[in-house]
Amino acid sequence: MSEFLEADVVKKMEEVKILYRKLDELSITILRTLQSIMFERKYLDANLQEGYINMAKARYLMRGQKVGIHQVNSTNLTATFKNDATLKLRSVNVENQLVDDQVSVLAPDEVDCKNEDSKTSKETICSNYNDPLKWFGVLVPESLRTCQTRFKQSTCTALKIISLHNKLRELHKEYKILKLQKASLCSHDLICNNTESECNNSVKS
């Protein structure tokens, strides 16, 4: 009987070791993600600061023209959205199966029409697209071009920061789940103490 108890304890200790290893790896990943967020925020602040400074320089050089939201040509602006939908068909009985077959045959044609419409809309958007720098003439100050580049980089960096925050949120959820698993396995203090001592000895060695 004691042999079975010892085998059960050893098995739980191995499971706890695996959990400790996963928690350590996950903690390192969380720290690296936080470091990436801090780095991207500094990069975002630097780009925004440089963009506003170059915008001020451009306003000073272009004294006869204004640089602001009032120069945006809102007549050609178009808003687009993407809707991902899946068509699921299920026949309830034999009589409705014919109707389902007809729908499944007609669905690809409708999808083709939608694809053609989306292609034509993309072509019209591309044809109507104009570089905003051309609104201020052909010869614009270099500071205005730098301003545009910096703000574009800021947009990409902001999206990257959002994705990193989403990743960090998922890592925190996974970390909480592992902590709960560890608490359920470490019902006996002896198992956790032995596992922690072995892990500390392995780290020291």
List the defining traits of the structure above.
mainly alpha; rod-shaped
Helix and strand layout, with pairings?
Elements (H helix, E strand, L loop, with lengths): L1 H60 L32 H35 L13 H44 L3 H16 L1
Helix pairs in contact: 1-3, 1-4
Structural notes for this entry:
With 205 residues, the protein is an all-alpha fold. The protein is 76% helix and 0% strand. It has 4 helices and no strands. α1 crosses α4. The protein is rod-shaped and about 90 Å long.
Strands, count: 0
Number of helical runs? 4
What share of the residues lie within helices? over 70%
Order of helices and strands: HHHH
List low-pLDDT spans.
86-111, 124-128
Strand content: under 5%
End-to-end separation: 35 Å
> What does the overall shape look like?
rod-shaped
Q: Main sheet?
A: none
Rg (CA only): 30 Å
**Average pLDDT taken over every residue:** 73
What is the SS-derived class?
Answer: mainly alpha
Summarize the structure.
GO terms for molecular function: unfolded protein binding. One of its GO terms (biological process) is vacuolar proton-transporting V-type ATPase complex assembly. With 205 residues, the protein is an all-alpha fold.
